[in-house]
Amino acid sequence: MGLIKQAFKFIFSPITTKGVFDSEEVVSLVDKGMSMADDAIYTKQEKARNHTKFLDWWLKYLDTTKGQNIARRELAVYSVRTYLFLVIFSCLIFKFYPEWSNQIFLITKEALLWLVAAIVTFYFGVGAFKNYTNGKNGK
Length: 139
What we know:
By secondary structure, this protein is mainly α.
């Protein structure tokens, strides 16, 4: 019994609880809790503000990489040409070699379609994005 009594005296003595309930620390703790609760909810205003920051960053990126437009165009044109060539070639040889035609079309569809779509979207997406943002800003 003496050990439990000493433990209670130690736990609830003014020395051990002195800094726990100070008003500055309680206010700081409540402020942290409120900021955590506020950060947990993503409001429409915060979403719009973050979207605006992203759009500003994206336009700066596009202006910075203007010199790469020729390379983007070449990549887009060559990737579309290659893709179309393989599709047309697989259609032309279908009558004579249907197995080869199916394999070429399968490779075109499975391996190249996503790549061509990504390149074309990136190339044409830059212009569409600029037109969209310029039209939205009234320029």
